[in-house]
């Protein structure tokens, strides 16, 4: 039995996959070649991002008139609140952000685009864009946490933000697929637009990482 939502998501993830390795910061951290101050910058930028994403998920849930989309977005919002609390230990361990023009334009383009999607995107299409990029985000966070421990001496509390997003989220994929399938069944999901949203989502996230890579290459 075919699963149109699964097929669409798999196809879009396959289209995005060749660019997953365009992240220039993660290999630097994994090899211990990024300046330690990058973690202070990440913490400071993520403070802005997580607060914005929390509001964006709530807006998406409030706008969704389809129950499965509302469940998907509403379930993600509390995770942002938990993640925000985990940043405090990283801020304490890494110190103050040494940047001069803060926050950085290249780091904040991603949450600005997500906020635009929250206000303007069709729910199922936004669900595709978000979930299509989740796996890469989780891998990035896992690699960052491993590099922090191996090369920079950070403890578990300081790595907790990245550990949180690297961990599996049981049931999340099923919720995403249900929201996507509901959009397909209702004729409210345009595959071309979903692809565009997913591609831009990936591009803006890579901009976040690569902005920091340019600044903090050791």
Task: Describe this structure as you would to a colleague.
The protein is mainly α and 218 residues long. It has nine helices and no strands. The N and C termini lie far apart (52 Å).
Break the fold down into its secondary structure elements and pairings.
Layout lengths: L3 H13 L8 H6 L7 H26 L3 H28 L10 H16 L2 H30 L3 H11 L5 H14 L5 H26 L2
InterPro entries: Haem_Oase-like_multi-hlx
Overview in brief:
With 218 residues, the chain is mostly helical. The protein has helices at residues 4-16, 25-30, 38-63, 67-94, 105-120, 123-152, 156-166, 172-185, 191-216.
Average pLDDT value?
97
Number of strands: 0
How much is the radius of gyration in Å? 17 Å
Question: Helix fraction?
Answer: over 70%
Number of domains: 1
* CATH-defined fold name: Heme Oxygenase, Chain A
Largest sheet properties: none
- Return the CATH architecture: Up-down Bundle
Question: Which tags fit this structure?
Answer:
218 residues; mainly alpha; Heme Oxygenase, Chain A; Haem_Oase-like_multi-hlx
